[in-house]
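Take a record:
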Amino acid sequence: MSTTLQAPIGSGFGPASTAADVMVGVDLSGRHVVVTGGYSGIGIETVRALRPAGATIHVPARDMSKARAALRDMPGVILEQMDLLDPASIDRFAERVLATTDTLHLLVNNAGIMAPPLLRDARGYESQFAANHLGHFQLTCRLWPALRRAQGARVIALSSYGHRRAGIDFRDPNFIARTYDPWVAYGQSKTANALFAVALDSIGQRENVRAFSVHPGGIATPLIRHMPQALIDASEIIDKAGKPIIDPQNNKKTPEQGAATTLWCATSARLAGMGGVYCADCEIAPALPADDSAELRGVRPRAMDPVAAGRLWQLSEHLTGVHID
């Protein structure tokens, strides 16, 4: 199995590049795509950029009325019910997709939650680990037959530079024994997203299924709804008038700029034969030397470790009861 170097390749794009920029000349006619969270924030901008390229787009939605309203100007997008905290609904959504198409060329695991109060799904799993990672793990496994048949599929996992906050606590990932900290839980889930891509890429190479993880940038989307106002102020992502501060060179982006790295990973010919890497600013991000690095750009060792990725994959199979055939 080949290993892609975690180092920039000179993409020609950068922090200010938009979804439209990276999609110039891309033709996805006849391709099927799934975008979770595709009716809000970065997700809807991902869908908006994919449609003109000719893709058939499936968007799972927890809130169908909200999704219909958000996508009313994008006819043809296929909306179906799904809740990442409800394993049965994940299975039902995957079954509907598989009944529609034999091949899935692109899966964008975009949906997520950030730093809510302690919540648990029906299985007792902590909500951020369950929604951001385990739900997408189950969805990917269920859609695996169609991804495999595409012979060139890509899977994109939305991670974040929030992975700097925590690694995976393999002894207590669901905060049963330890005190719940919403930001530690968020960091754990974002590290999990990156490690998921490492493991999936290793498994998928033999079927020409490649995986990437993405840091989209700091973007004022509904994802920040659980952030205390003091933290929002300290983050300097919204000005005193309540408008987002846009400074892509310093990680503060529009949703259109935030979707760009996802779409670059999803469609760039420059990434053919590559995978298992963490990307940001429409580029493979540099590897940082230590988990405690103060640098916000780049990826920490905890999110690239193939041993941890393998452990997480096994843990995820155990917790969900799902695996790739």
